[in-house]
Design goal:
2 strands, 54% helix, mainly alpha, two-stranded parallel ribbon, 111 residues, single chain
Length: 111
């Protein structure tokens, strides 16, 4: 929660950075989170790209997709996942994708 994402450590202290990622992903997952939302491009890279590296190295089972906060603004404005660049991320969640698509369809039906 208050610990940095570990981006600055990934080049020189990869194991420490990977543990930070694991702890953040595990904590968020166990708290019921379905994704991360970040305001910082470095945090996005660390939690998206490096989450898969950490998962492979530390063998943890959780993974959460990462949204840059402007992607959520785009979704709220009616853009779809493809238009906001969601599919450029490396970590995905088919369940979350379906929920977002259902919300979008419901929004269209309710107008």
């Amino acid at each position: 929660k208050t610990l940095c994402c570990g981006f600055g450590l990934f080049g020189s202290q990869k194991e420490t950075a990977s543990r930070i990622i694991r702890d953040k992903v595990e904590s968020a997952f166990l708290a019921g989170a379905e994704a991360f939302v970040v305001p910082c491009p470095s945090c996005f890279q660390q939690l998206d790209r490096n989450q898969l590296v950490a998962k492979r190295e530390l063998k943890f089972e959780y993974q959460l997709p990462v949204f840059y906060y402007l992607q959520l603004v785009g979704l709220a404005m009616g853009f779809d996942l493809d238009e906001v660049g969601y599919y450029h991320g490396r970590v995905r969640s088919p369940e979350l994708e379906e929920k977002i698509k259902l919300l979008k369809r419901k929004e269209v039906v309710n107008i």
